[in-house]
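Reading is simple: the token line describes the chain's fold. The lines below illustrate.

. . .
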Amino acid sequence: MSRRLRYGVAVSLDGFIAGPSGEYDWIVMDPSIDFAAMFRDFDTAVMGRKTYEVVAAQGGPGLPGLEAIVFSRTLGSAKHPGLTVVNDDPAEVVRALKAKPGRDIMLFGGGVLFRSLLVAGLVDTVEVAVIPVLLGEGIPLLPPGATTKLVLADQKVLPESGIVVLAYSIPGGVGPAPRVRYIKPARHARRKKSTGVKRRTRAPKRPARPAPARTHAKARTRQDRSRRR
């Protein structure tokens, strides 16, 4: 079976994957996302030059645990540990990668590379994390020039951050898209699980009230009478 090429990206509610200057500081983090579990599905990642520069600025040059391939028309071809820069046609390279055995291939970005591989019929899934923010302008999820239908495979809402994770399959691709399995259990759910059923607390017993003085007096009178008899 051919390996899947999966496009995974964070996107604003109005459809942008980066700000006008490529900024991504609007992307909020959610503690329930298990990135180690997310990356476990892949052994290879492909990206464009601009995305690579963002990764390198964060202390790259590549992605830990993945063999990264960078497509560029301006950078010279080069090979580094865990990273290869190529000037070849992305569609030909990805088609050859999909024919090899291995795990799924991550399409790490950006939008122009996504469009070119989508037009070539090589993208199998689109998996987006919709961030609750409106940018108004920026780099679009899909630049003009390509269209496709999508089939919803799974969805998850992360209440703490407001992120909505959507996984779609592309008809005709290698699918379906995998379920969203990299979300950790909610904290309150774990707490309930560990403590179990709450026990009902009983109200403390009230202390017995002392008998009225009249009762004590009557008891003494009876005792005196019995002694006289």
